């Protein structure tokens, strides 16, 4: 199944869009990770599993450029982005807590990245409508994040991350705060998005069910080492 | 099931002790509250008593009560009018200046770790802990040295000295307020804005500042209130020249000096009213629930 998915994705993607972590080390106070190696193939959906506090988020943040690494390399496609500012890496990011912008409407959330890129008004509106439709947010567009349910909040965060059509997506426990029914809906939604948006995804979670449902490559982080459990080829 | 006498006795002791605990807290806290209310009431009573006495002695008591009471007389005085206007303008200016400095400084202190941060943090507390007279004297001495000396003639004992003296103390309070405001804003939101393509400045302007609006309002009003109450540094650095560098706190001092206690109290009441207005505005904007 993974094979078919990859084939359909690669035919649509002209450019190479792998996420590669080479030999990466991170030191932050007492916490330390060494020789992290991880590759997410173009258009693939990788899930990185591990216990709370084992450093999954740290790895994700290094890929995003929010955390400095002590040594090693991070490649996106053929580009070495190790020293690149997060603003120009072009990775969509959904953090665990959503981190929605208080005071902005949901429409403004979805338009934000396009506005920063000075896209035309019609392009922004078209993208906002498309995402609202895809994520079922039409009825929320005029609201602010205040009072949104967990699932709605995460859908907005996902829409915001996808708004500028990134080639890469980093999800940090996006479903962990949701009840089981909403979680299931979100999983279906994520699969749907993968088919339509053809992004290379790195998803971090501690939930095995979620991992097995979504992943076409599954990694686990234990005692500072990454183990490959499933790859696309299998 | 009946409790044993021991348990009953213990329960009574606990209940008594709990009641005593809250009575003690109430008495200690209440004493201070009483002091605040009593001070203000004494001022108000003093003014009211004077007003009534003037009214009784006058031909037209009602008219005299409203037009010849100490506050009305103070408000009619040309010098005091000037000092009210100078207070309003200088406090607003120094509060705006304080905010202008406090926002970037508070943000830097709240978000970034750098060498010497703890030292900087301590330095920022100096204007708060320093005796006010020392602040004024230090300003005066500072303007003995270049490059400040070159503009000393236009600053010291001039109008700009009023704003500088107020700003130098008020700003420290504004910085504290802004730092704690930014401390309470989730840094994840800025990080997210950056991953969406924002520069740091864009993330700050689009994502952080709108959320910090209430904190900025609190910092502004706090700086304004501090500036209104400023006296020590003003006395030394700006002088107490009537119709020139005289603000409300200076007026109280000058009126007391010439033995006009009624005038001093009247001006104090004007300041109390101004401070109350600021307090209410802060509470109204700073939190959702108003105090009224």
Keywords, separated by commas or semicolons:
heterodimer, A: 234 residues, Rossmann fold, six-stranded mixed β-sheet, four-stranded antiparallel β-sheet, globular, disordered N terminus, B: 292 residues, mainly alpha, 2 domains, disordered C terminus
What's the gist of this structure?
Chain A is an alpha/beta fold and 234 residues long. Chain A contains 7 helices and 10 strands.
Helix/strand/pairing class of chain B, anyone? mainly alpha
Overall average residue pLDDT of chain B: 88
Radius of gyration of chain A: 17 Å
Poorly predicted runs of chain B: 288-292
CATH class of chain A: Alpha Beta
**End-to-end gap of chain A:** 9 Å
Describe this structure in words.
The complex is a heterodimer of chains A (234) and B (292). With 234 residues, chain A is α/β, with parallel strands linked by helices. Chain A is built from seven helices and ten strands. In chain A, the strands form two sheets. Chain A has a six-stranded mixed β-sheet, with helices on both faces. A four-stranded antiparallel β-sheet of chain A has the order 2-1-4-5, covered by helices on one side. In chain A, helix 6 (180-197) links the parallel strand 7 and strand 8. In chain A, helix 3 (106-116) packs across helix 4 and helix 3 (106-116) runs parallel beside helix 5 (150-162). The longest helix of chain A has 18 residues, at 180-197. Mean pLDDT of chain A is 85; it is low at 1-14. The two termini of chain B are 50 Å apart. Chain B is flat. At the A-B interface, strand 6 and helix 3 of A face helix 9 and helix 10 of B.
